[in-house]
Every structure is written in C-alpha cells, then in structure tokens.
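Entry 14. Structure prediction run on the chain below.
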Amino acid sequence: MDTNSRIVKPEKQKLDGGEEIEGGSKSFGYLPEELIKYILSLLPTEDLIKTSVLCKKWEYLWTSFSKFSFVQGSSDDNRSSFLKAVDRALILRDADIEQFSLSFTVKKGDASRVSSWTSGLVWRNVEKLSLALDGARSTFSLAPCLFTCATLRDLELYIPSKLKVPATVCFPCLRRLSLNSVLQLFGRCCQIMVNGVGLKYFQYKGGFLNDYYFYNSSVDKAEILIPTSRLRHVSYRLYKLLREFSSMKIFTTSSSSFKVVQTNASELLAQMPLFSNLATLIFEEKEVNIGCKGLLRMFQNCPSLQTLVCSEGITLSSDDAEDDGVLEPLPPCFLKSLKKIEVHAFLGNQEELDALKVLLKNAMVLEKLIITCSDSFQGRPEKLRDVNNQLADLPRGSSKCCEVICSLSP
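Output returned:
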C-alpha cells in the first residue's frame, strides 16, 4: 500500500494558552460559558434542550435559561419528541421560569398532560405565560392553581373551546390579559368578575358569550374585536365592557362593533361612556364607514382624541357624500385635539376620496394625514400621482400646516 495514501489523523495542537485544538478548529467546549449561553439562546427551545447530548459540560447548561418557547411543527412525526422536550423543560429544572410559550394541537389524552404542565409552571413562579391550544374538545380544563397564580404578570390564552375555570380567580400581579378565540369561560355562571387594580392591558377576540366586569380597573390599553353577528346580547356586553374601560388611553377595535350596537341596541348609543383620556383610536379588520352613526357617537365621546388609525381603509356612501352634515354635530376632538390620521389599505376609489374630503374639511387642528396604498392598488405609480393631485385640491379645515402623505405600501 502506498504510504502517500494513508489516512493521517490530525495531531492535536496547542494554543499559546495551552488549549488544545483538533484539525485546526477550536472546540466549542473551550468557549466562555456566557458566549455559549448566548449562542444557545438563538436556538428554538426544543433544539436547545437537545444540545445536552453534544457535550458533557452542556448536559444541564440549558436548565439555566428562564425563557422557553415551544411551537409544534405541522407534521405529527416529531410529536412524541416535542412532548418529551416540554416534559424535560419542567421536570429537569427547579429554578423559576420567567417566560413560557406553548403552541400545539391537543389530542385525546393530552388534557391531563397540559394540566400537569400548567401546574408545574405555577410551582416555578411563571411570570409570563402564553398558551395556544388548537384541537381542544368542547370543554377544556387547565390546572385550577393557574387561576390563583400570585406571580403571573402576563397571560395570553388562545383556546378555541369552552374553558372551564374555578369559582375563584385571582391574579394579584396581572398586568396584561389576552383572551383570543376562547368560546366561553365556563364556571358557575356566565359572569366573569376581575378585580383589576394592576391590569394595564386587556385584549379580547371572540363572540362575547360572557359578561365581563372589571372592578377598580386601571386599563390603559384595550383591544376588543368581535364578530359582526347582529346579536343584541353582543351589543349589551360590549357596552358594559366599554363602560369598565372609560379611562383607557389606547383603544383598538373594529368599526363594525359600533354598527352592531347601532343596529341591535340603538338606545345604548346615548348612554355610551365618556372616554376623557382616550388619545389613540385604532380600527382593524374592516374599513371604516365615516357615515356610521354609531361611530359618530364614539367620536363625540372622545374629547381628547389625538390620533385616528384606519388599518383597513375608509369609505363613505354616495348618499352620505352629498350630506354636508355627515359629522354633525361635529365631535369636540375634531375641533380641538385630533392632530394625526392614518389610513391604510387605500385603493384610491371615489368612496375613499369622499371620506378623506370629510375628514380634511372637519378636522380643524389636523397636522398630518398619512395614507398607505394597498398592495392591490391599481395603476401605480401613475394613479398615485393622480390621487396626490386630487388630495392637494381638497379643502382643509385646519389652519395649521396640514401635511398629506400618500405613498405605496413598502
């Protein structure tokens, strides 16, 4: 055999500091521990836990982390290893968990496992918890101790089923609460009472199958998105909830919410609370119809409104466009405080231009109008120049230098 063809094992070399390298590459084991931790922190949690088999030194290094995020893939092939990874994260470490996020599809037999996980999180003083559980049965339960967790500051639940809760619910440190697609909180009654002294943020997306009462509410920011079903009970529950949040500063909702109230319980419009501190109003999901009377009532009850955002565009029917008093009586915020309007998903049609005309004419202290065109904006950029020319000719009620910016979406 030719000696030149022999495989030569690379010799270990030594650096000046006496550290050994093989084949010219320094081993990860010799990196500073803080640098190793930083590298590991960039990995998905499931992969992070798997690094324990790479090096004896790393066997329990991952347990020093306090933030975990588990997201199940679309395939069921790795489901078993996914569940084991979550088990290990809670069984092999005793330290507190600052943040824990879990997203996976619940199957038959998983309920007790999820309950055990949530119980373990409470025992480890979890502060921020996000659970997204698809596939849950019609009624689903979490560990009862979760609903009296003294350390929880941020709770997000996406559980599209009825969630069974105990008779007593107490989160003394909770500052953020998000309920997304939870069909119903099921307990002794359909009324959910929250003593929210420290609660600053509340998000609700669902069908309003419960009444929510917030005592001593200090919520600054609320997001309430409901289906457009024309149900009277939805109108009343929305009204009751808005009454609890009359001191909020930022509110995100859908313009259809006020259409629901106008259609099903118009008597509530005159009883809408005054939102004296509301500075930012954001509309999502649907375009905003400037001619909606329910929306006009909301404007009238926001005397300090400074910023209006229409995320899905605006419109005004041709009949309302002929009515010079579409915003009469003119809301106080249009006279004194509304300085910025943002309109997104703009298409450049006549209904939108008519709506912008009304806003520009009646916003007496407006300083900036920002318009972002939709991805489906036709005739770009030639049409954009035409739209900008039309906007430049629209009358302005503001005596200030009102800047109008219309641009294509990035």
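The CA atoms of residues 202 and 214 lie 10 Å apart.
Filed with the rest of this week's runs.
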